[in-house]
Every structure is written in structure tokens, then in C-alpha cells.
Amino acid sequence: MPPPRIIEAAVPIAAPEVDETIVPVNPGGAFLDINFARLQAAGFITPDTGRTASTEAIRAIKRQLLKTAFPNGRKGVSGGSHHDNVIMVTSSMPGEGKTFLALNLAMSFCAEHDLYVLLIDGDGHRRFLGDLLGAREGCGLVDILVDKTLQVGDLIQRTSVPNLSFVSGGRSHPHSAELLASKQFGLLMQELAARYPDRIIIIDTPPILASTEAVVLSGYVGQTLVIVENDRTTVRQLRRTLDMLEGARNLGCILNLVPEEENFSGYGY
């Protein structure tokens, strides 16, 4: 397995029963009104955020992801059948900053001219991303695999960021890992990537060592980012994570919470 790409960026981190009723989240084109003040207070990027060390670190990461997603520029679409515009964000263990990065990357991508972003909460265990955005309950990623009457359009919520849409994780399910490993899920991911080949799709997943879903998801995405928290993630944990992600396309690591005096943004082998 080739060595993963390494990104160093000093970015701070902010800290069920099965319901048989599945309700589409997008009846009549309803949209998600994001509370930007709440996000800013927690340290997240919003459309009104000025230039800071964090925004510059995220921007440096974003540029490299864009190069891989659209190697010929955004005049065309993402690279072939590999869907390099589909990016998975994960970590070894909970609390290392994956959701923080996923949402900040989505907001940073939205600042690009004529670029649309689909943000997916693939962490059905915590649903932290949906909580941050204030998403209302409704069907999500797992639900469409359970209820064959649902369509992709039933999952997607437009937001108050004009070029950002959101898909929730949906209800908790005791066999979510098996559902995500199914042929049906593979077809769903192919449909999402094929339907939106000219936009960035970001999936926030459960940690690799805490759940098996993220390993399954890595087989359907074009880029995989693993968050490594400085002075917390152990070498053993990272090695186990990378071993479990063997075969993932464009596997990269992001070193998070680097001390300011040591901070630089880099991207390479």
C-alpha cells in the first residue's frame, strides 16, 4: 500500500430506539435554516468568517482535495468512474475532530465560485453533524436502504447556504453496518456520484476503530481523510486504522491541533 498523503494543519476542535416511521425531510422543497451565530461561537467557519489561521489551514487542505477531485479543472466533471469528488472524513477514535473538519471543509468549499456541496452525515451513531446544523428529524442515509419507496430526493435538505445541501444519517438501525455493506448501498453511492459529478460530496463517518461502517464506506469514495490528533492519537491506533483502510483511494492524513509555533500547511508523501 502506498504511503498516505500527509496534511498538517492547526485547526481547533469544538467539543437509540428504532422508529418505524420514516418521514421524508424535503416535502415541498423545505430547507434547513442554519444558525451561523451558533456555529461561529463554536469555532466553525461560516459565510461571514474572515481570514484566520483556521480558515487558511482549511483552505490549504481544500485546494489539494479540489486538484484530486477535478484534475482537469472544474470545466469538466470529476475523475472518471472513481468518483474522486466524493470525500470521506474519518478518524481512529471519537473526539479527534473529524466532524469539525467535515463541516468546515463544506463551508470552505461553498466559498468557491459556482461549486456546489453535498454534505452527508454518515455517522448514524452520534448524528453530531445534524445537531450542529439544526437538522430536523426525518429520513436519511440508512432509511433509504430500508424503505424502497424512498428516493434520493427525499433525503436531501437545501440549506440557507445557497450552494450547500445536507443529508442526515437517518434513524439508528441495529444492522447499519450490514446495510452499508449491501449492494443497494453501493448503487446509492453510484447514483449520488453520477447525479452530482460536478460538485463535492463530503461524508462524515464514524471512527474506524469504533465502528465498521467507515471501512465499508471507504470502498465507495474517491478520497479518504483520516484525522490524527496531535499528542493524542497513538502510533498503534493510526497503524491499525491505515491497515483497515488498505485499498482506499487517495488516502490522506490530517494532523490536527498542531501548536501554533510548529504550524505549517503541507500536503505530500
TrEMBL record:
InterPro entries: Bact_polysacc_biosynth/exp, P-loop_NTPase, Wzc-like_C. Keywords: ATP-binding, Nucleotide-binding. GO terms for cellular component: plasma membrane. One of its GO terms (molecular function) is protein tyrosine kinase activity. PANTHER family: FERRIC ENTEROBACTIN TRANSPORT PROTEIN FEPE, TYROSINE-PROTEIN KINASE. This is AAA domain-containing protein. It comes from Magnetospirillum moscoviense. The lineage of its organism: Bacteria, Pseudomonadati, Pseudomonadota, Alphaproteobacteria, Rhodospirillales.
